[in-house]
Amino acid sequence: MDEVAGSAPGQNLPPTERPIGAGGALIGVVDSPKVTFERIARAKSWSFLIPYVVLLVLTAVSSWVFTKRADMEAFTRDQIQRSPFASRLTPEQIDEAAKQAAQRPPAYAVVTGTAGIAILLVLVAVVFWLAMMAVGGSTGFLGAWRTVCWAQIPTILRTAVATAMMYVKDPTYMDMQNPVATNLGAILGRDALPAPLYSLLSSLDIVTFWMLWLYVLGLSAEGQVSKGRTSAVVFGLYGVVVIIGIGWSLFFR
Prior knowledge:
Helix content: over 70%
Order of helices and strands: HHHHHHHHHHHHH
Number of domains: 1
Oligomer: single chain
Structural class: mainly alpha
Largest sheet: none
Number of strands: 0
Strand content: under 5%
């Protein structure tokens, strides 16, 4: 675990290689991800906090725009009626919950949404750190977190597009699980599919698979583990998430 051992940023660079800058990494993750993640792993820079902060800022902006543009009472009522617990509530209880949600200040959505993403990315890094150690990788926690943050470039792009879409159309009845149609679940629509099938098709997402591949490249470079073994870890863990999602939709619809 390089970070635990105390290696300094740039310590493992070849003599002729300059540390990769944040701008170069941002472009390289999209343009030439394999080489870029190898350079990121060698540089061990803290610049990975840049995409982390950018995603958090975009999440805050997106949450703010949504609460200002959407009819929060109608949105909450629609979400409750779609939930597996709607049958346990009376119409009066649903109306009361919708009214309470509409009265919350926009800052509530901003804080909860942003904090949720911030914590989630750290938890994902912890899971990858432990999983890579289990298969013999030398990835430290910071190495895993570095990869997770840089691999959010696809998510950053999708969040930016989703935020822009909120200005084009009323976001009240947007499918917030699929705000941008990058999978068959979003294209066919939640109402046209059984819940388990919708969950499965939503998980087969172009942007998500792009991010997962970036995880593979980054974790492989950080932990000096083959891409095949790293792919088994990353896609295996995602498969577990997909199965849990399908099971939830099947038993709690």
